[in-house]
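Re: Re: token formats

Sure, here are both.
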Amino acid sequence: MAVLSAQNLTMSFGKRVLFQGASFELANGERVGLIGANGTGKTTLFKLILRSLEPTSGEIHPSKNTVVGYMEQHACAGSVRTIYDEIMTVFSDLIEMEKRLEQLNLLIDRGGDINRLIDEQLHLTEEFERRGGLTCRSRARATLMGLGFPSEMHDLRCDRLSGGQRSKLSLGKLLLSAPDLILLDEPTNHLDIDSVEWLESFLREYKGAALIISHDRYFLDRVTTRTMEIEHKKLTIYKGGYSEFVKQKERDKMIAQRHYDNTMEEVHRIEKIIEQQKQWNRERNIRTAEHKQKSIDRLTDGLEKPEADEKTLRFKFETTVETGNDVLICSDLTKGFGGKPLFSGVNMLVKKGERAFLLGPNGCGKTTLLRVIIGQHLPDRGLRKLGENVRVGYFDQSLEGLHNEKTVLDEVWDAYRRLSQTQVRSALAAFLFRNDEVYATIGSLSGGEKARVALLKLMLGGYNLLLLDEPTNHLDITSREALEQALLDYNGTMLIVSHDRYFINKLSTRILRLNEDGVEPFGNDYDEYLLRMEQRKLNAPKQEKAQPKVNTYKLNKERESERRKLKTLCKKTEEEIAECERKTEQANESLKDPAVSADYEKVIALTEEISQLNQRMEQLMETWEDAQQRLESIEEALS
């Protein structure tokens, strides 16, 4: 059943058209990703659904009795309630029912109209249980924990929270209110990776429908069942999550371009015939030309030239000087505030060319560690040493290094006076600041535009060590992809803090996890990091046995989920091992070819390929054996 439908929807502001002719339906239980470049109208579409804006033409409306939920940006601002009391306001009607049940118990004990009181009590108890009254408190606490509020924070007043924490609390209230259709606008902002994974699990089990604006591609892949993209003023619908959308879109573009090219080739052929017939200028020739023109009209009727790709950022990070092999050394680094350490005993060596990612929960000190490394904070103990010829460039997620009163042009030019104005404007154009846009003040820019200015300043610096703190936070998907490619092409060294798992998997050569006791290595990419974290949880000391109450159902459910993940991992690893074996066999066969064996460069290339494939197979076998061992352990526990 559809919970939302739109027919021929058009939205414009003056002469600027955001989208036109959009038609779609959302069914109950669907989770749909809404993507598009910044400024294409995604948030505007939400406002149309909520009736805070009226469309220029067309219709959009939820179905009858559908409750639509949307996260209010300032819902908890100024509240003096505790975090727990604030989230429990979602269940105010259940709390009132609970109070009435307590009153009924007292009234029944005192006597009176017993039959009427018992009837009311039975009816109210049934309604209370049906609506989840027995579990509302545990659900509220579980939601707070899942969103990164540990139990010791539950009694903290809301007016003491940061903006990001208030946003998380608002998200928790929205999720617990369980509307029929939930609208989420960048829900993973302000969440650490653990909280994002909790949100993914919550949404996958959510009974209602969800329409989600997000630039988090990994999140979209794990949650959404369909994808809607706004591009070139059109809304197009694709099956599946983000990765499937990319494949479908590329295929559709290729088919549309081929159809257009073939049609135009035929049109040009017919036009030559028409021209020839007109030159002969006989009555029969004129009739032929007219007939051929009708063929062209039929061919071109409704034919649209495929739109060119949206303009994207053009990055190129270059280094001006070569570093030594040891780029960054941290020894016993400790830092805290107010007498309480954030982290201690950080020992870390970052080698030349590494793309290392620093992960950890919010508040563990990742940003502080970066600021200690650049010298913005002094450590309480320990030291950090930069290697030979190291020049450090730092991207600050808060964008504090920008000057709100300056124009975009002056912000960049003042930092690089060696460049001419023409060179600066050319660089700004590559970052999508064109014409009079370069005279806009920094303070008037959106978060994404400010991030582009900060990244441009970083790019022009010629640094050979980049410290990046959440560099993708304000970027849309196309800008993130441009940044990824630039960093892949960069020949310097990187230490990056990010919760963008797609970005991490694309770039990382090494994962480090920061906790209060230091830094631990956790593999080479996010998938391996996740596997090791799950292994650690599985191998943790089994203190649960000492507890008086064990939720066997929940534990088995978690084991069942873990078993499915491990089976998928084993299958995926087996397939990759088979592919490596196939490629190795193919390479060995090529070496037997006399034409190849006589070519020294080809022999060297094939030998190197075989060596790399063998190394990869060893890694895969270790992963498979570890996963298989854990799978057997879980299956034994479930039997």
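Second one below.
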Amino acid sequence: MKYLKILAIALALFLFLRLVSSFVPVLISNKKIRMAFRRIFPVIEMLMWISYIFWASHQMFYHLPVYNLLTGSMIIVITAIFGWYLLRDFISGIILKAENGFEPGQRIISSEASGTIKKSGYRCIEVITSEGEYVKIPYSRLSPLNITRPADAGRWVEHVVKFKISSRYESEKIRKVLENRILEMPWIVPGENFKFTITRDETENYIVVIHIHSLSPEMAIKTEETLQVFVREVFM
């Protein structure tokens, strides 16, 4: 009877959690609250299952002499799993950054995603793919990869690209779209000299001026031609 009770509670908990995860997000109209719920709920679900496991083990083994040893072992195992999950990406990141010196603008190819590094954090890097998608890759999944590094500063070629874009587009959107496209180009050197200036002319159109560093004069010409085509396709 005791074992049937434990199984019944496990089934009821499973069904309850599935119903909550399926229907509550549908009922939440606010997008931010819905996204926050989707992030928090898996943690709540995990904590509830851990609580259930400890309760079930107490119901089944509390009368045995090894109960305290069993409970202590469970705590150690769960702590070790969480510790490894939280620290593995952090430790892998330290090792990989020491070996490769991840910088924005570097190209990487891995089994998870390929593209240009946008940002490197403590536990993952953010990559922009050739389709313009943002992908976060934990460092622990970046073992088999190739990295193309920007050239040394002494070989950089600075040039300025200028566009006229209709003011019906938001200036911040223009900046983000162009920045993403530029960072997808492996010959572009990112850094503090990668600058945007957006002003308005007498016809109220935007004048976009971009200061870029590339790897060679030929790449400077290619960059301008590529961006001219991109601007015509996206903003005209």
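The first strand starts at residue 107 and ends at 109. The two ends are 73 Å apart (CA to CA).
- S.
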